[in-house]
Design brief:
The protein has about 190 residues and is mostly helical. The protein has a single domain, classed as Orthogonal Bundle (Rna Polymerase Sigma Factor, Chain: A).
């Protein structure tokens, strides 16, 4: 199971771009059913990004909800070019940054906050999830963000670089370093 988790992180996962694109266009037309489906597909990656930025489960839940309200209101401005997930995460990132400016709060993720992250993979046991959470907690903030954006959202490294406003080479090196740390941690070798 843990090897599968690393493979997912190495190859990315996430909702189908064409489906997200279609759903966003339908949401722009006021389709509530499409909005519900979009929410179900994208809430995990949105929440994961926001939580990694705010480090507070309550605030992350609020900003996740605010993100989807903003998406409902702004779907008409979405253009079918690039990554629809990147567009959604940009909305979330901007709202999270506004919250950070307002509160100027930083901290570590608690066990309760980690548990609030949606676990949609039924093949992952509670024990696997605990080990994976511990391994992810051992990463630096940017490393964790990059890994989660790639694994949970299926964003390409170039899209992550744009979203986090980092050079592509930095994203690639932090991602590779994070995978090595995760692999060492998950295989019982500890972090190097």
């Amino acid at each position: 199971m843990l090897t599968a988790a690393i493979n997912t992180m190495e190859h990315g996962a996430g909702a189908d771009r064409a489906l997200l694109d279609r759903l966003l266009r339908q949401v722009a037309d006021g389709d509530r059913e499409a909005f519900g489906q979009l929410y179900r597909l994208a809430r995990g990656p949105v929440y994961g990004l926001v939580l990694s930025m705010l480090k507070n489960a309550h605030d992350a839940q609020e900003i996740t909800q605010d993100t989807f309200v903003k998406v409902w209101d702004s779907a008409g401005s979405y253009r079918s070019q690039g990554s629809p997930m990147a567009w959604l995460l940009t909305v979330a990132r901007n709202l999270a940054r506004m919250r950070l400016r307002q509160s100027a709060r930083l901290g570590e993720l608690t066990e309760e906050e980690w548990e609030a992250i949606p676990a949609d993979a039924p093949a992952v046991t509670a024990e696997d999830r605990a080990v994976l959470q511990e391994a992810l907690a051992s990463l630096g903030d940017q490393e964790r963000q990059i890994v989660l954006l790639h694994a949970a959202s299926g964003l390409k490294h170039r899209e992550i670089a744009s979203l986090l406003e980092l050079p592509l080479s930095t994203v690639l090196s932090k991602y590779q370093r994070a995978l090595k740390k995760l692999r060492a941690q998950l295989e019982g070798g500890g972090i190097r």
